[in-house]
């Protein structure tokens, strides 16, 4: 067994173990750390597949930004874990059924004849100046342009929906109206009152 195949199996086992740890641990901070470990091992697998751009993007974007932000939010929210532990056993049969269906679909898909080794020949060696980032951009913006635009629209709708859900009007909250603030005159906010000084009253 060559070293590349050995490294693939080791990283894959660690990845599966980290994924199991994400869904089995009851501490959200530990689950997030397991997810970071899973992202790192996924990046190593992509590096073995010569997808350096996707590997570095996964580490920089998800591990370096998204997961760090998620960890800060989880640690600052002080989540009560008691309700989560109570509902775990109640939804365990349904979750097990869904997991069994997903595993069965994956097994049926992999065991299909279209996934045999004959249908996936070994690709030819790439030249030294080959850029998989360029190939990814060409494929994304030519062959899969419609799918890319649909995904962008879905993400835009999700962003707008998240903003709309969080912008709730509360009666006890004060809001500013910039249009009315700009139209305010000096006479509306400032009043000069003439008063006698204290020295005149003493005299």
Distance between the termini: 109 Å
How helix-rich are the residues, as a percent range? over 70%
Structural class: mainly alpha
How many helices? The count is 10
Quickly count the domains. 3
CATH architecture of the largest domain: Up-down Bundle
Work out the number of β strands: 0
Per CATH, what is the topology of the largest domain? Four Helix Bundle (Hemerythrin (Met), subunit A)
Please provide the ordered H/E string of secondary-structure elements.
HHHHHHHHHH
Radius of gyration: 29 Å
Low-confidence stretches: none
Largest sheet: none
Note the overall shape.
Answer: elongated
> CATH superfamily assignment of the largest domain?
NADH-ubiquinone/plastoquinone oxidoreductase chain 6, subunit NuoJ
CATH C-level of the largest domain:
Mainly Alpha
Query: Which band does the percent of strand residues land in?
Result: under 5%
Explained architecture:
With 203 residues, the chain is an all-alpha fold. It has three domains: 1-80, NADH-ubiquinone/plastoquinone oxidoreductase chain 6, subunit NuoJ (Four Helix Bundle (Hemerythrin (Met), subunit A)); 91-121; 130-162. Helices cover 71% and strands 0% of the residues. It has ten helices and no strands. Helix 1 runs antiparallel to helix 2 and helix 2 (28-48) runs antiparallel to helix 3.
Salient structural properties:
single chain; 203 residues; mainly alpha; Four Helix Bundle (Hemerythrin (Met), subunit A); 71% helix
Task: Map the helices and strands.
Blueprint: H1 3-24, H2 28-48, H3 52-77, H4 82-90, H5 92-110, H6 132-143, H7 145-166, H8 178-182, H9 186-189, H10 198-202
Helix pairs in contact: 1-2, 2-3
């Amino acid at each position: 067994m060559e070293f590349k195949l050995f490294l693939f199996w080791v990283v894959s086992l660690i990845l599966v173990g980290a994924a199991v740890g994400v869904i089995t641990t009851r501490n959200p901070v530990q689950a997030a750390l397991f997810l970071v470990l899973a992202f790192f091992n996924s990046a190593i697998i992509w590096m073995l597949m010569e997808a350096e751009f996707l590997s570095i993007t996964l580490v920089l974007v998800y591990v370096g930004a998204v997961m760090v932000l998620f960890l800060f939010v989880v640690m600052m929210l002080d989540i009560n874990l008691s309700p989560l532990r109570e509902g775990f056993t109640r939804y365990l049969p349904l979750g097990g059924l869904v997991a069994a269906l997903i595993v069965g679909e994956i097994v049926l898909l992999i065991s299909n004849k279209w996934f045999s080794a004959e249908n996936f020949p070994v690709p030819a060696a790439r030249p030294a100046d080959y850029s998989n980032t360029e190939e990814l951009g060409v494929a994304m913006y030519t062959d899969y342009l419609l799918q890319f635009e649909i995904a962008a629209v879905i993400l835009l709708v999700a962003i707008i929906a998240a903003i709309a859900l969080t912008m709730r009007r509360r009666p006890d909250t004060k809001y500013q109206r910039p249009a009315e603030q700009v139209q305010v005159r000096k006479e509306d906010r400032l009043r000069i009152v003439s008063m006698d000084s204290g020295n005149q009253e003493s005299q």
